[in-house]
């Protein structure tokens, strides 16, 4: 069974933010929420690196472990999704996530957070596949259409890889064998408890 | 005699008022009946949610589209 993963090759990322824009456009993500964002480390200094970051769909997802209403579930292809009808917007998942993936729309007064929103790996949620209700709540379901997340498909430098973990790891290994070791597959050890060694 | 007329007038006024309320009630009922199908229609597009088995079913397929993505990423 294929295991879906993201891999950001930070040696290739040029911080163009096309992945961020593609995600927002494809899923009609509301103002104030970014399911994906680009983070730059050592900005302006030697060794500067940019990393495109979203929900990594962890193997043993800490967000699911702390959710008091058990709104998270992991699909057979290892995509971590959540049910917004169950979410109470408590924010525990945000504190548990090592990547800062869960986002809240800040609706209402008195500090109400609203329903949590995060990257769905373009696999939407528990509504009927590719229905209007599913799109309104969760965004596009490209996986059901036989495609991959648009952020990765849009990446002009092919820095962001998505798909079957074994295949994208082999692609990354080929790159490393050709160009030499770089910054590593950032976040893999945290999310999937493994490294990509060439 | 005057008392009799007064009582009849009072009765008519009460009947008019009740008639107005009856009309209002009927109109309200008719409006609700008319609105009911509209509400049902508005709810109709909302399909049932997926079952627990459907929710976690694997959806990834290695289509030609996906294969092209893997191939171009090897360049």
UniProtKB/TrEMBL annotation, chain A:
CDD domains: DMSOR_beta_like. Transmembrane segments: none annotated. Residues 4-34, 78-107 form the 4Fe-4S ferredoxin-type domain. PROSITE patterns: 4FE4S_FER_1, 4FE4S_FER_2. SUPFAM superfamilies: 4Fe-4S ferredoxins. Keywords: 4Fe-4S, Iron, Iron-sulfur, Metal-binding. GO terms for molecular function: 4 iron, 4 sulfur cluster binding; metal ion binding. NCBIfam families: FDH3_beta. This is Formate dehydrogenase.
Automatic annotation (TrEMBL), chain B:
This is Formate dehydrogenase. It comes from Teichococcus rhizosphaerae.
